[in-house]
Input
Amino acid sequence: MQVKGHGMQVKKNHRFLEEVIITILFLARQGLAFRGHREGDDSDNRGNYLELLQLRARDNALISEGLNNKTYTSHVIQDEIISILGMEVRNIIVQEIQSMKPSFYTIMMDETRDISRKEQVSLCVKYVTKDMKKVHERFLGSEASSTTCEALYSLLKGKYPMALTIHCYAHLLNLVLVDWSKEVPAVKTCLDMVQELYTFVTGSFKRNATFENIQRQLNDGGKKTTLKPLSDSRWSCRADALKVICQEFKAILETTENITTEDTNPKSRAEAEALLMKVATFDFVFITSVLNDIY
Output
């Protein structure tokens, strides 16, 4: 009887684990965060993973009972299941590509910094299906290190000597423009001012609201825009930032003038006055206009 009871419990645990995997798959497909800031029983919101399991437990007795076992809802189990699912996805993609004879595919790689300031690599694999009529896109990701790109390049070249590797031309052009802008003092000063304007205006809800209100007045209540930050890696950011400066230059001037006279904070008034003196110059207007055409 004891052995039979143990066997039934094992089967029940397996079924509960299946429900846990279904929940994890849903959150992963939707791109939702799993964990909350506070996951204790006294928390009002314990994160998407635990809250979704709790919701499903209302009409699923198996989940309701299984939630009493903290092992299957722990961070360790979450990470392990996500890792296993990721490997399974990767294996399926590889099998699909290998099953096609001949196989035609390309790999596009990019990296970005996540909220924890770690570089993450994204891989996009494009390949043609067996009927040669449909192109599939599949995406993979991994944490990046300083040697990730070089290692992947060496691996591909070692296995496929005829493989063509093409650097992103937009990225190459952006790198040239970034280096060039740092070497020309007038351009560097201008771009520093663009970033300084963004930091100053958007760094305060009150100042940003002033900028938006002045835009509405000048544009007869039309669409308002926000100042954009600069970025060395994302080439579109500089174009977006310069475009807003050129389009809303009058609103920027009136915003800084308004802050110098109306703001009750002496520091804000002083910063606005210093910005106004730098922005309301021929050099700034001319260089931003030229850079806007270049970017």
Residues 2-30 form the longest helix (29 residues). Residues 77 and 259 are 54 Å apart (CA to CA). The mean pLDDT is 81. The chain is about 60% helix and 10% strand.
